[in-house]
Structure formats: structure tokens, C-alpha cells
Backbone:
């Protein structure tokens, strides 16, 4: 009986210490299944804001910062969820889903990634989750409000950003085109290895 009681107390103590360490943490990361894409999320305790960066781990062993520090958050008509946030919990999940499409190049496809859900409590007491997914091909995130609220809310501003690292980056892009009498807007060919930050070759973008 004493050994069982001791084990129970030890389990409670370990769980409490683990929860306390989680609450003190201010940086979290999630990597793609192949480990080449890594998203690092940072919570600023001072103002309660959240930001992220994205790194690419290359075949040669070097790491390239694809996205520099980028802001997160949105503003509703009732509260500003870009600041005043307090971290409460984290959940991790490995996603592997197969699905079929009606049309396209492939009928059967797979959605595979690693996911983290970071929960933050706003000064108002409302919980906002920021869900990040890291794929072998890139990353994605979305916001989720946990409250069972049937009222409609209006998003009046969004602080989400994608701050591309302009050092040595290159893109594969198509110049914007307008629809003319004999030419459709999608007929301009793609240009390859365009340095990030290059101005558009035409005045309209």
C-alpha cells in the first residue's frame, strides 16, 4: 500500500514539474516528416505577442532561413488577439490522411505532416489556438478560437505575415498579365531563379 501511495505521489510530482516547465517555455518547434522544414514559434512574454520563423535544412547539411521573424495574430471587433496572450498548453500530432479527388493529376493522395497546437489565453480570458503544420514541401498555420460561442465576430485586421529572407533566395514566378483582345492573362511564361526582391518587369505588377 505504501509503495503504491509513494508511486502515485511521484507521478503527481513529475506531472506537476512537467506542466510547470511547459508554462515557462517561450519557444516551440515543429519539423516536417523528412526533417527538412522546421518552424520555430516564439512567444514574447513582455507584450504577449507571438511570431515565427521557418528554416530549411539542406542536403549539404547547411540551414537556410526561408522566413525571417514574421508576426502572428488578428484583431476582432471585440478584442486584439495580436498581443496580451499568455501561453497555456501545447499538443502535438502526426497527421497521415489518405483521400481521393474527383479530378486532377492524381486520384489518390496523402496528407502527411507534423502538427502542433499552441493554446494562448487572452487578457479577456478567451482561448485562441494557433495550429502549425510542417510538411515536406512547406508549412501552414491557422487560428482557432476554442470558445463555444454562437455569436458572430468580425475580423477587422490580421497581423499574419510571411517575411521572406531576401539573402540568396530565388523564386519561380509568372509575371502578372492583363487580358487583351487576342491574348489571355495566363499566357506569359514562367521565369526561373528570380532573386527575391526583384521588381516586376511591367508597371502594373
Residues:
Amino acid at each position: 500500500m505504501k509503495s503504491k501511495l509513494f508511486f502515485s505521489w511521484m507521478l503527481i510530482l513529475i506531472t506537476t514539474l512537467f506542466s510547470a516547465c511547459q508554462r515557462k517555455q517561450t519557444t516551440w518547434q515543429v519539423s516536417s516528416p523528412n526533417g527538412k522544414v522546421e518552424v520555430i514559434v516564439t512567444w514574447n512574454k513582455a507584450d504577449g505577442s507571438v511570431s515565427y520563423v521557418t528554416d530549411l535544412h539542406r542536403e549539404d547539411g547547411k540551414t537556410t532561413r526561408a522566413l525571417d521573424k514574421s508576426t502572428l495574430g488578428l484583431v476582432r471587433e471585440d478584442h486584439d488577439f495580436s498581443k496580451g496572450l499568455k501561453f497555456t498548453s501545447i499538443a502535438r500530432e502526426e497527421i497521415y490522411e489518405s483521400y481521393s479527388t474527383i479530378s486532377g493529376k492524381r486520384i489518390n493522395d496523402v496528407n502527411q505532416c507534423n502538427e502542433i497546437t499552441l493554446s494562448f489565453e487572452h487578457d479577456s480570458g478567451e482561448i485562441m489556438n494557433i495550429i502549425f503544420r510542417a510538411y515536406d514541401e512547406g508549412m501552414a498555420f491557422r487560428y482557432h478560437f476554442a470558445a463555444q460561442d454562437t455569436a458572430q465576430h468580425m475580423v477587422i485586421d490580421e497581423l499574419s505575415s510571411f517575411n521572406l529572407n531576401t539573402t540568396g533566395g530565388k523564386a519561380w514566378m509568372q509575371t502578372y498579365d492583363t487580358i487583351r483582345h487576342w491574348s489571355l492573362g495566363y499566357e506569359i511564361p514562367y521565369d526561373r531563379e528570380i532573386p527575391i526582391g526583384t521588381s516586376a518587369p511591367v508597371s502594373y505588377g
Q: What stands out?
A: The first helix runs from residue 2 to 24. The two ends are 76 Å apart (CA to CA).
